[in-house]
Amino acid sequence: MTSSGMQRPGGRTARVRTAVLKAAEDALVEVGFAGLDLGDIARRAEVGRTTVYRRWGSVGALLADVLTDMAEQSLPRARTGSLHEDLRANARLVQRTLADPRQGALFRAVLLAATCDPAAAEALHRFYRTRVDEWAPCVTEAVERGELPPGTDPAEVVRAVSAPLYYRMLTTPDPLDEPTADRAAAAAESAARAGAFRPAGPEVI
């Protein structure tokens, strides 16, 4: 994780990027993807419109950079030595992010943007590939320890942990709390231990 108190190399360029990305996140939370405007984002960031248009060029490209930055800022995966604890840590990290008033609103806006903007969709897919790749080794290690059947698909297990939390956020007004996260992790773990995420073999007749 990149600490928020650290400045990436680049001087003024890095400061401009940070200011513009924060302004873009603020705008996404306040007005959603449909209301995004590069000129308004430049005003919010207190930088020149020309700078924003020259560097990003389109709302989709800017949103892609927002997601790149989010991936860079994400916390590293847990390394507890236990599949149960690793998956629970993953679920609770997702839960805290989606339940946060700002981060939850930001993710809802990004998900909506991905349904209508190809650049946003590709950026979203890249973001989740990064996060799944970060957490997949906890499943690989569980297979090596004998906790899971050989051939278990690590990426599918990680996705199975998060999927119920996103579904709950998007389809219900119910609170997204730690017990909900723990249930999602436990369900994914049980399915993985039962072999649900192994490649399908020949049908037995």
Automatic annotation (TrEMBL):
Protein name, per record: TetR-like C-terminal domain-containing protein
PROSITE patterns reported in the protein's UniProt record: HTH_TETR_2 (PS50977)
Keyword DNA-binding included in the entry's annotation: yes
Organism encoding this protein: Kitasatospora putterlickiae
The entry's keywords: DNA-binding, Transcription, Transcription regulation
InterPro entries xrefs: Homeodomain-like_sf, HTH-type_TetR-like_transc_reg, HTH_TetR, Tet_transcr_reg_TetR-rel_C_sf, TetR_C
DNA-binding region(s), chain positions: 37-56
Domain HTH tetR-type: 14-74
Pfam family, one: TetR_C_11
Membrane-spanning ranges: none
